[in-house]
Write a structure and sequence with these properties.
The structure is a single chain. This protein is of the alpha+beta class. The protein contains 1 helix and 3 strands. It has one helix spanning 11-25; strands at residues 36-39, 45-58, 61-73. It has a 3-stranded antiparallel beta sheet, with helices on one face. The chain starts with 10 loop residues before the first helix and ends with a strand. The relative contact order is 0.22. The model has no long low-confidence stretch (mean pLDDT 85).
Length: 74
């Protein structure tokens, strides 16, 4: 989101930026197309991502994480 604060981007531009970051960073917990991009009432964009993930910790104990974040792009 910080890459486009001065440009007032459209959803297609934001998708291209996200896809470029996914190609470089290669995150495995979530896919780039799972990020919701919507226009807000002020003409900016909002990016929203929510997902759950688990990771092994010790023996038969795992850690569960819930992530839910919305970022405004203006």
């Amino acid at each position: 989101a910080s890459e486009t604060k001065s440009d007032n981007p459209d959803p297609a531009t934001m998708k291209n930026i996200i896809n470029r970051h996914w190609a470089i960073d290669d995150p495995t917990a979530v896919a780039a197309n799972e990020i919701e991009i919507t226009k807000d009432e002020n003409g900016g964009l909002q990016l929203h991502l929510a997902y759950d993930d688990t990771a092994p910790y010790v023996a038969n104990v795992s850690l569960a994480v819930h992530f839910d974040k919305t970022v405004k792009v203006q």
